[in-house]
Amino acid sequence: MPFLRPQQPVQAARLLARTSTANAQRTFTSAASRQAASSHEEDHYDPPTGWLWGIPPGQKYEKEGWEGLMYYGFVGSLILAGVAYAFKPDTSIQTWALEEARRRLEKEGILADPDDEKK
Hints:
flat, mainly alpha
C-alpha cells in the first residue's frame, strides 16, 4: 500500500471542491433555455381550431405524395405476410414425432401402410 503524504488529501479535497462548483454552474438540464424561451410572449403551439385535422368544413383534403405509397405498401405487405404465414411449412416437434412414430410402426408391421391399396 503506498504511503500517503499529509498534503495529498487536502489537495484532493480542494480539487473536488473546485470541480463541484464548476459543475454546479454548468447544468445538464434545459432549464436555462426554457427560461429564455418563456420570456418571449408568443405561443409555441397551434391553438385548437375545432376542425378535424385542421381542415375547415367544405374544403377538400389534399393528399400528400407519400400517403398513397404508404397505404398500398403497408396493406400489401400485411397481405403478403398473411399469405406467407398461412403457407409456411409445419416444423413443430409434435408433427415430426407423429410422423416418425407412424413410420416406425409401419416398418414393424404394427400399423398398416396407408399408401398400400388392397383391393
